[in-house]
Amino acid sequence: MGFFGETIDSIKSIQIRQTLSQIIILGLIVSSALVIWKGLMCVTGSESPVVVVLSESMEPGFARGDILFLTMSEDPIRAGEIIVFNVEGHPISIVHRVIKVHEREDTGEVYVLTKGDNNEVDDRMLYAPGQKWLERQHIMGRAVGFLPYVGWLTIIMTEKPIIKYIVIGALGLLVITSKD
């Protein structure tokens, strides 16, 4: 094999190493994001430390597209707090204000009633059939901070899946084609 054959083999070897390196970098980015998410879950005590407001039900306090930061502690929930909760039969979490708290003295169990600030009536119609109050297991966390409108990218990618695939593809292509 001559000089050119060895050079071509050397170039192919470098290209293979670069491709493998870029795949590893992409994997590290994805795994880093997962580690950060799990770390936030541990620090905040919430199963979902960050959520996006998806409707106008909390306006003017929170607008559609705002990102809320959640925490979950053992402190009692009080009327006036903003909570995020799940209800059986609803695949999407709901962000609303606690308007009433009921605590059973005999068991210590706490029940809460919620309402969106922009809604006319309480949330009982959103709860599971026959359910009048939310219990602790329904609550994902309490809002402790927010970033206005930053969640619009998530809303757009959810409502227009083609955009999500374009963004993911472009980011993947960027990582794979980068030379560093």
UniProtKB/TrEMBL annotation:
Mind telling me which InterPro entries this protein's record contains? LexA/Signal_pep-like_sf, Peptidase_S24_S26A/B/C, Peptidase_S26, Peptidase_S26B
Record's subcellular location: Endoplasmic reticulum membrane
Annotated Peptidase S24/S26A/S26B/S26C domain residues: 38-143
Q: Name one GO cellular component term.
A: signal peptidase complex
Reply yes or no: does the keyword Disulfide bond apply.
no
Q: Which Pfam families match?
A: Peptidase_S24 (PF00717)
The biological process GO terms on file are: signal peptide processing
The record gives the membrane topology as: Single-pass type II membrane protein
Q: Which domain of life is it from?
A: Eukaryota
Q: Of which family is this protein a member?
A: Belongs to the peptidase S26B family.
State its role: Catalytic component of the signal peptidase complex (SPC) which catalyzes the cleavage of N-terminal signal sequences from nascent proteins as they are translocated into the lumen of the endoplasmic reticulum. Specifically cleaves N-terminal signal peptides that contain a hydrophobic alpha-helix (h-region) shorter than 18-20 amino acids.
Write down what this protein is called: Signal peptidase complex catalytic subunit SEC11
Organism equals Ficus carica
